[in-house]
Amino acid sequence: MVNRLLMPKATAVWLVDNTALTFEQIAQFCNLHPLEVKTIADGEAAQGIKGLNPLTTGQLTREEISKGEENPEHRLQLAAAKITLPEKKRRGPRYTPLSRRQDRPNAILWLVRNHPELKDTQISRLVGTTKSTIEQIRSRTHWNAANLTPMDPVTLGLCSQIDLDIEVEKAARSKPQVETQDTGLLPARATENLPLEAETQADLDERKVFSRLSSLGSDAEKTEKPE
Fold first, then answer.
1. Which of 70, 172, 203, 205 is 20 to 30 A distant from 139 in Cα terms?
2. pLDDT tens readout for residues 98-155
3. pLDDT category of residue 216 using cuts at 50, 70 and 90
4. 150 near 114, Cβ under 8 Å?
């Protein structure tokens, strides 16, 4: 891991204010141009930057500063880091043990059947396979398709349940939602301007109604009279 100076310009501000180092020495140590260090010393640049003490960050020692002040030709050396952070490794394809590789087609078949929403890239991340193999199993053109049995990749040890749940959740979020047709009542504002049926078809003739009621009443009286 390359050891680099933290906040070069802020470090240069502190060195200009607190040491007798030359502009060239500060520029070499902070990876700046000597004229830029001169503008910092003149107050024309980095006015809003607070100086950073390289002694407190452990990137420069007091002895190294003293050597530079005594010898203008001395080049300041960055102190070795006390803690080395490991470099971030690139995530490659999932490694599958040799004893489990024969079970991968069964796991792929299980994922294709039980989680059809998963993309080929997601299945590849889970069980460490290729897109061509997934396509062959999906289309039943795999050389051993007749003997494949769907098996849970979690129980096979090819992936964890957490990884599977994460991929399924991602696939569910990316899947477009289908709007269901609402068969309930329409809102009131949707029915305000609906055309009304003709009143002549809906209203009843009052005379016909009363005549019908009177006829029913007379029929009832006749049936009630004793013989």
1. 172
2. 666 788 999 999 999 999 999 999 998 898 888 999 999 999 898 888 899 999 988 8
3. low
4. yes
Can you tell me the distance from the alpha carbon of 169 to that of 175, in angstroms, rounded to the nearest whole number?
Answer: 10
Give residue for tokens 């310009």: 9
Going by C-alpha positions, the residue among 99, 72, 213 that lies closest to residue 158 is: 99
Q: pLDDT at residue 226 above 70? A: no
Sort 49 into a burial class: Cβ within 10 Å, 0-12 / 13-18 / 19+. middle
Strand, coil or helix: what is 88? coil
3 state DSSP class of 28: helix
- Residue 50: strand, helix, or coil: coil
Coil, helix or strand for 44? coil
**pLDDT category, 198, cuts 50, 70, 90?**
very low
Radius of gyration for the chain, computed over Cα atoms and rounded to the nearest angstrom = 43
Under 8 Å between Cβ of 107 and 151:
yes
User: Distances in Å between the alpha carbon of 99 and those of 95, 103, 104, 143, 158?
Assistant: 12, 8, 10, 20, 11
52 in Cβ contact with 7 (< 8 Å):
yes
Q: Is the pLDDT of residue 74 over 80?
A: yes
